[in-house]
Design goal:
The complex is a heterotrimer of chains A (284), B (257) and C (290). Chain A has one domain: MetI-like (MetI-like fold). Chain A contains eleven helices and two strands; from the N terminus they run H-H-E-E-H-H-H-H-H-H-H-H-H. A two-stranded antiparallel sheet of chain A has the order 1-2. Chain B has one domain: Rossmann fold. Chain B is globular and about 55 Å long. With 290 residues, chain C is mostly helical. Chain C has a single domain, classed as MetI-like (MetI-like fold, Orthogonal Bundle), CATH 1.10.3720. Chain C starts with a helix and ends with a helix. Chains in contact: A-B, A-C, B-C.
Chain lengths: 284, 257, 290
C-alpha cells in the first residue's frame, strides 16, 4: 500500500516534466497569439520592421532571427579551431592521463563563468582592442559578440567531442598504426571519420547554446534593429531584443517579444533534437 | 622475393621487453627466421608471445613506459633504429579480432595502407592491388560485386581475411599474426589456415597461437615461450615429436596451458 | 619506391600537427586566466568587508564618493541575501521533484513514457534562459501582478530540474543492482529500500549533481531580469521584487556612477561559482563518479 503510494509519487514527478514542457509551449503560444493574429505567422517571421510608435505599430522577427543565426554560426566557426584541438589533446594524445584531466577541468571552468561576466570582459577588454584595430568605430557588433560567444561555447563543443574521440576503439587505431600510419594520419583517416558524427552532434549542441546566449551578446552586439549584413554591423539577436525590451513592453509589443521567445524555443528544441537523434544513432 | 638460402629474413638478438623497469616480459630472446616459412610462437597466456610479436613492428611504442632492447634485424636492418612507420610497412600485422575500418568500404579497406601512408595511386594501380590482395586471401570472388559496401557487412571470417588482404596490399616482407583465428569459428579458422599455407609461397609469416594443433598443422618452425623465456625453437616436426625441454613436453601434452 | 624521403616529411608533419594541437589547447585556457586577472586587477580595491555587510549604494552616494575620489561606499549585501532567498526557494521546488523523477527513470529505463520524460527534460535543459524567464513571467509575475523572488525561483528551478533528474538517474544507475536486490530479499519494502538504502548510497552523486546545478544557475541574469527584477533593499519576502548579485552587476554596469562596482561584485560572483564547481568536482572524484 505504502509502496503503491510512493511509486505513484515517483510517477507523478516524472509526469510533471511532461506537464512542464507542455506548459512552457502552451504559455509561449498563448502569449504569442496576439502578435501572430495581428501580423500573420509568416509575415511576422519574414518582415524586419520593428516600429513601436503608436498607430504605426509593426513588428517582425527577421532582423533578430538573422542576427541570431549570424552570430551563432560565426561563433561556431570560430570555436572549432580551439575546441577540436582540445578534444584531440584530451581524447587522443593524452587520453586518460593526468594532464588531460587537468586541461579538461580548466576548459570546463570556462563554462562556469557567468554570461554577464563574459559581457563585461568583452565590453572592457575585447571591444577596445577591436576599436583600436580600426575594424569598427564603436567596437560593438556581430564580430565582438561572436568572439565572446565562441569562447563561451568552447567547453560544450570540446567536452562532448573528447568523449566521442576517446570512444574510437583502440584495435582500429592499432590496425592503422600497424600499416605504417603516423599519429596525424591515424587521426585524419581513422579517429576523426569514426568519431565524426559524434563530433557533429557536439557542435550542433554548442550551436544550440550559442543561439540562446543572452547577456554577453546583449552587451556587445550593439542593439540595433536591422538585418546585419557584415561582421562589423551591429544588430540584435532574438535573446538580446527580449532582454532589452521585455521590461517596458506591453500589448502588441509584449506579445511580439513572447512570439520571438517561442520561435527561439522552437529553434533550440529543433537543434537539440537533431543532436540527440545523431547521438542515438551512434550509440546503437 | 628470392629465397636466398642460408640468409635469414628476421634475426632476433637478445630481445628484451619490459612493462615495468627491472621486470622483463620478454627475456633475452634470440632467434633467426628463414624466408618463406611459417613460424609459430606458442606458450601459455602471459608467456610473452604477443609481446615479442609486437616488439618486431614496434607496436609497443604506442604506449608509454614499454622498453624494448636488443637487436631486431629485418632483412639485415635494425628495426629499432628505423623509422617506425617504415618498419610497420615492411612487417604487416593481423590482430586477434578482425578490425576492418568501419567508415571505409571493402575496397578502401584493402587499399587503406596506401592512404594511411599518404601514397597516391592511379585508379588502375589501386584496382590491381585490390584484386591481387583479395585473390591472395581468396576473398575476391565473394566480394567483387560488393566492393562499395562497408567492411563490417562481412562475416567474421571474411573480415579477418579482409584484414589479411589489407596487410598484404602493402607487399610486406613479413606478416605478423597475433592469434588471428582465436575469435573465429572452426570453418573460418580452417580456411585461414589453408590460406596461410598458400601465402607462405610469397610471404614469411610469424604467427602467435595458443592452439598447439594449429601450430602443428601449418608451421615449419615452432617456438615455445614460458615466463618470458624462449624455451625451445626448432622445426615443428622435431618439437612435436621429440621436444628437448621438459616444459615444452608438458605444454604440448597438455599438462599446463 | 620513394617511401624513405616522404617518411621524413610525414614525421615532420606529424610533429608539427602535435605542436599545433598543444599550442591551441594552451591558447584555449588563456581567456579563463585573462578574465580572472581582469577581475582581480580592477576589483581588488573594492573587494572589502563592506561588500558583504552593506547594501548597494545609491547613485548619489556613489557620485559624491567619486567626486571626493574615495572608494564607493556600500556593497552587494542585498544581492547576497536576495540570491540566497531565490536559490533556496528554487532548491526547495526543484530537488524533491528532480530526485523523484530521477528515481523513476532509473527504475523504468525503457518505455515510451520514460523516453519522453528524458527527451523533454533534455529539451527544457537546452531552452535558453531568457525564454525560461518569459515562462516564469507568464506563470508567476502576471497572475500575482508583481515581480517577485518567487518568480525568479520558479525560473531557476525550471533550469535546475533537468540537471538534477539527470544526475540522480545516472548516480542510481551506477549503484550495483545487488544492493537493491539484497534489500528486497531481506523483506524490506520498496519504499524503504529506496529511502534507506539507495538514496544514502547515492548521496555523494546526488550532492555533487545539486552543487553543479546550483553553480550553473548562480550566474544567471537574464531570467531574473524578467522575474525578480531587483531591489535596493534587503528583502526576505518571496512575493516582493528581490535582487541578486548578477542583477546588481547589470545595474552597476548601466549606471555611470556605480560602474566601478562591477569588478568587485563580478569577482565575488565568480569566486562563489568556481568554489562550488571545484567542490562538486572534488567530491565527485572522491566518490569516483563522473
Amino acid at each position: 500500500m505504502k509502496d503503491k503510494l510512493f511509486k505513484s509519487f515517483l510517477f507523478a514527478a516524472a509526469g510533471l516534466v511532461l506537464l512542464l514542457a507542455g506548459g512552457m509551449f502552451y504559455s509561449l503560444v498563448g502569449g504569442s497569439v496576439n502578435a501572430f493574429r495581428h501580423f500573420g505567422l509568416v509575415d511576422f517571421i519574414t518582415t524586419a520592421d520593428w516600429n513601436p510608435r503608436t498607430g504605426e505599430e509593426r513588428y517582425g522577427a527577421l532582423s533578430f532571427i538573422s542576427g541570431t543565426l549570424f552570430t551563432a554560426l560565426f561563433a561556431l566557426l570560430l570555436c572549432i579551431p580551439f575546441s577540436l584541438p582540445v578534444a584531440l589533446f584530451n581524447g587522443e594524445y593524452f587520453k586518460g592521463k593526468k594532464i588531460a584531466v587537468a586541461a579538461s577541468s580548466i576548459v570546463d571552468l570556462l563554462a562556469g563563468i557567468p554570461s554577464i561576466v563574459y559581457g563585461l570582459w568583452g565590453f572592457y577588454t575585447l571591444r577596445p582592442l577591436i576599436v583600436s584595430s580600426g575594424l569598427n568605430e564603436q567596437g560593438f557588433g556581430i564580430l565582438t559578440a561572436s568572439v565572446v560567444l565562441a569562447i563561451m561555447i568552447i567547453p560544450y563543443a570540446s567536452s562532448l567531442s573528447t568523449e566521442f574521440i576517446s570512444m574510437v576503439p583502440n584495435d582500429l587505431k592499432e590496425g592503422a598504426y600497424s600499416l605504417g600510419a603516423t599519429n596525424l594520419e591515424v587521426i585524419r583517416r581513422v579517429s576523426l571519420p569514426i568519431a565524426g558524427s559524434g563530433i557533429f552532434a557536439a557542435y550542433i549542441l554548442a550551436l544550440g547554446r550559442a543561439l540562446g546566449e543572452t547577456m554577453a551578446v546583449t552587451m556587445l552586439i550593439g542593439n540595433t534593429n536591422n538585418i546585419p549584413t557584415s561582421l562589423f554591423d551591429t544588430g540584435n539577436t532574438m535573446a538580446s531584443i527580449i532582454a532589452n525590451q521585455f521590461g517596458e513592453a506591453d500589448g502588441l509589443k509584449l506579445s511580439s517579444l513572447i512570439a520571438i521567445g517561442l520561435l527561439l524555443f522552437l529553434i533550440t528544441a529543433g537543434i537539440n533534437s537533431i543532436a540527440k537523434l545523431v547521438m542515438r544513432k551512434i550509440l546503437h | 622475393m628470392n629465397n636466398l638460402t642460408g640468409e635469414y629474413l628476421l634475426e632476433l638478438k637478445k630481445v628484451c621487453v619490459s612493462y615495468t623497469p627491472g621486470k622483463n616480459a620478454v627475456n633475452n630472446v634470440s632467434a633467426d627466421i628463414l624466408p618463406n616459412t611459417i613460424t609459430a610462437i606458442m606458450g601459455p597466456s602471459g608467456c610473452g608471445k604477443s609481446t615479442l610479436l609486437r616488439a618486431i613492428n614496434r607496436m609497443h611504442e604506442l604506449y608509454p613506459n614499454i622498453v624494448t632492447t636488443g637487436e631486431i634485424l629485418l632483412k639485415g636492418k635494425d628495426v629499432l633504429k628505423m623509422n617506425p612507420s617504415e618498419v610497420r610497412r615492411m612487417a604487416g600485422m593481423v590482430f586477434q579480432r578482425p578490425n576492418p575500418f568501419p567508415t571505409m568500404s571493402i575496397y578502401d579497406n584493402v587499399i587503406a595502407g596506401y592512404g594511411l601512408n599518404g601514397i597516391r595511386l592511379k585508379k588502375s594501380e589501386k584496382d590491381e592491388i585490390v584484386e591481387t590482395s583479395l585473390r591472395n586471401v581468396a576473398l575476391w570472388d565473394e566480394v567483387k560485386d560488393s566492393m562499395t559496401k562497408k567492411g563490417s557487412f562481412l562475416s567474421g571470417g571474411q573480415q579477418q581475411r579482409l584484414c589479411i588482404a589489407r596487410a598484404l596490399a602493402l607487399k610486406p616482407e613479413l606478416l605478423l599474426m597475433d592469434e588471428p583465428t582465436s575469435a573465429l569459428d572452426p570453418i573460418s579458422t580452417n580456411r585461414i589456415e589453408e590460406l596461410l599455407l598458400e601465402l607462405k609461397e610469397q610471404f614469411t609469416i610469424v604467427i602467435v597461437t595458443h592452439n598447439t594443433s594449429q601450430a602443428a598443422r601449418i608451421s615449419n618452425y615452432s617456438m615455445f615461450m614460458y615466463l618470458g623465456d624462449l624455451v625451445e625453437y626448432d622445426t615443428t616436426k622435431q618439437m612435436f615429436t621429440k621436444p628437448k625441454d621438459k616444459r615444452t613436453e608438458d605444454y604440448l601434452t597438455g599438462v599446463f596451458g | 619506391m620513394g617511401f624513405k624521403s616522404d617518411i621524413k616529411y610525414r614525421s615532420a608533419a606529424d610533429k608539427v600537427f602535435f605542436g599545433v594541437i598543444c599550442f591551441f589547447t594552451a591558447l584555449t585556457m588563456v581567456p579563463l586566466f585573462l578574465i580572472l586577472w581582469e577581475l582581480l586587477k580592477k576589483g581588488y580595491k573594492q573587494f572589502n568587508v563592506n561588500l558583504f555587510t552593506e547594501v548597494a549604494p545609491t547613485s548619489m552616494d556613489a557620485m559624491l564618493a567619486k567626486m571626493s575620489s574615495e572608494l564607493i561606499p556600500g556593497g552587494v549585501l542585498n544581492g547576497i541575501t536576495g540570491g540566497l532567498l531565490i536559490i533556496v526557494v528554487a532548491i526547495v521546488i526543484a530537488i524533491p521533484i528532480g530526485i523523484m523523477a530521477g528515481i523513476y527513470l532509473a527504475d523504468n529505463p525503457k518505455g515510451i513514457f520514460s523516453g519522453s520524460v528524458r527527451y523533454l527534460a533534455d529539451l527544457v535543459q537546452g531552452t535558453p534562459s531568457i525564454v525560461i524567464g518569459i515562462i516564469a513571467y507568464a506563470w508567476v509575475v502576471k497572475p500575482l501582478h508583481s515581480y517577485s523572488a518567487l518568480a525568479g525561483s520558479v525560473a531557476l528551478a525550471i533550469m535546475m530540474l533537468p540537471l538534477i533528474i539527470r544526475s540522480t538517474e545516472e548516480t542510481l544507475k551506477m549503484l550495483p543492482a545487488s544492493l537493491k536486490e539484497a534489500g528486497l530479499a531481506l523483506g524490506a519494502s520498496y519504499t524503504n529500500v529506496v529511502i534507506k538504502i539507495l538514496l544514502p548510497s547515492a548521496f555523494g552523486g546526488l550532492f555533487t549533481g545539486i552543487l553543479l546545478a546550483i553553480s550553473r544557475i548562480m550566474g544567471e541574469t537574464a531570467p531574473l531580469m524578467l522575474t525578480a527584477l531587483g531591489a535596493s533593499i534587503i528583502n526576505w519576502d518571496i512575493y516582493k521584487p528581490t535582487s541578486a548579485i548578477p542583477l546588481l552587476i547589470w545595474e552597476f554596469y548601466q549606471n555611470p556612477n556605480l560602474v566601478d562596482l562591477i569588478w568587485s561584485s563580478s569577482l565575488l560572483l565568480l569566486l562563489i561559482i568556481l568554489t562550488l564547481n571545484l567542490t562538486a568536482k572534488s567530491i565527485a572524484r572522491k566518490w569516483k563518479i563522473q
